[in-house]
């Protein structure tokens, strides 16, 4: 009887513990959803104004979107930060640099680069190092999305997307690595001595999303390479903080600039989920807080997308079915409609031309 009573008590304790675990998990989920992020980043407080004082940020893809938003946010919310802004369009970078200075930044440099030209990146990295003597934070942000079915996209476009969205990040990291190696001060946190890499990834780096096959491949690769790299650097005693940002729909031109069937043709319009997405300034504020706290990975996305991310994490089979039905349906349908319109126009043109040829031939025969 005593033994049975002990078993009953033990089961009751296990049941209570399980209930508390479920309640705690649900509470964390609700907090995360309310604040548009994973629980860790949702409860991370904003760094103080002097958190990045004298820190050198090198931001790629700084001419628009998240890169530009990060530069402007740093300029207006943090004291003494030094900025290196990079992208292909020098004239646009100059405009962004001017905005940063108006917001309070005093040290802003512009450095033009092409992320698809890997051969040039090591020399560009050396030039970046020469501007302020070092780079404390590398923001790997430049990139391009896709809006085309894999079967319609040439292999050259797949390679181009991988080159820009992933391999350029690897190339720049390796180019800066010699300047980061050596003994570090006590305390391996972002605010002191350890260099930091912030990578702009995406929900597409965690799940497969239709009409984004090449984009998904590149973003998945970012997580694999940099997660392993972070561990390696710790093992050899040269720690580097790496924060991979899993970004959901944000109000940028990522869809308009997305590639379709080649590396020179773009989608030209936005998606409904992008238009209703998060504000870039809100996103970069959360990113900076997560990086300062040393988070290895952070999520920031609209609630519906965030919920699907949690499903992917804990019930992947169910999540795949949901993604297959609901994921980016707007873009898929738009591409189908566009393809149908083009095909219809071609058919009509061909039919008109055929009738004209027949009439001309008939007249020739009559004469």
From TrEMBL:
Family matches, as Pfam families: adh_short (PF00106)
InterPro entries: NAD(P)-bd_dom_sf (IPR036291), Sc_DH/Rdtase_CS (IPR020904), SDR_fam (IPR002347), SDR_family_member_7 (IPR053011)
SUPFAM superfamilies the record matches: NAD(P)-binding Rossmann-fold domains
Family: Belongs to the short-chain dehydrogenases/reductases (SDR) family.
This protein's name: Uncharacterized protein
Lineage: Eukaryota, Sar, Stramenopiles, Ochrophyta, Bacillariophyta
């Amino acid at each position: 009887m005593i033994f049975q009573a002990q078993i009953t008590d033990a089961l009751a304790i296990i049941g209570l513990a399980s209930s508390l675990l479920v309640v705690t998990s649900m509470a964390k989920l609700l907090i995360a959803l309310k604040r548009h992020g994973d629980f860790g980043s949702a409860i991370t407080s904003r760094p103080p104004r002097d958190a990045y004082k004298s820190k050198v940020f090198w931001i790629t893809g700084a001419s628009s979107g998240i890169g530009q938003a990060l530069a402007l946010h740093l300029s207006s919310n943090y004291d003494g930060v030094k900025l290196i802004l990079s992208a292909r369009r020098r004239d646009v970078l100059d405009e962004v640099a001017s905005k940063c200075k108006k917001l309070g930044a005093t040290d802003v440099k512009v450095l033009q680069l092409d992320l698809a030209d890997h051969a040039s990146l090591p020399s560009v990295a050396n030039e970046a190092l020469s501007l302020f003597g070092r780079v404390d934070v590398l923001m790997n942000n430049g990139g391009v999305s896709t809006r085309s079915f894999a079967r319609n996209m040439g292999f050259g476009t797949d390679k181009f997307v991988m080159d820009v969205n992933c391999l350029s990040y690897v190339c720049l990291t390796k180019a800066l690595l010699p300047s980061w190696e050596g003994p570090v001060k006590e305390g391996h946190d972002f605010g002191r001595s350890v260099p930091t890499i912030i990578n702009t990834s995406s929900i597409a780096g965690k799940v497969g999303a239709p009409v984004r096959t090449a984009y998904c491949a590149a973003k998945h690769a970012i997580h694999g390479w940099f997660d392993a790299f972070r561990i390696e650097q710790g093992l050899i005693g040269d720690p580097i903080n790496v924060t991979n940002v899993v970004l959901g729909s944000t109000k940028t031109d990522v869809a308009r600039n997305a590639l379709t069937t080649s590396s020179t043709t773009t989608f030209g319009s936005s998606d409904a989920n992008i238009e209703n997405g998060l504000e870039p300034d809100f996103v970069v504020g959360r990113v900076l807080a997560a990086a300062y706290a040393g988070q290895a990975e952070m999520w920031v996305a609209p609630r519906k997308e965030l919920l699907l991310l949690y499903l992917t994490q804990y019930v992947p089979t169910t999540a795949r079915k949901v993604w297959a039905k609901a994921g980016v349906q707007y873009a898929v349908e738009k591409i189908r409609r566009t393809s149908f319109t083009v095909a219809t126009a071609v058919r009509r043109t061909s039919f008109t031309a055929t009738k004209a040829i027949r009439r001309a031939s008939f007249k020739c025969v009559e004469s």
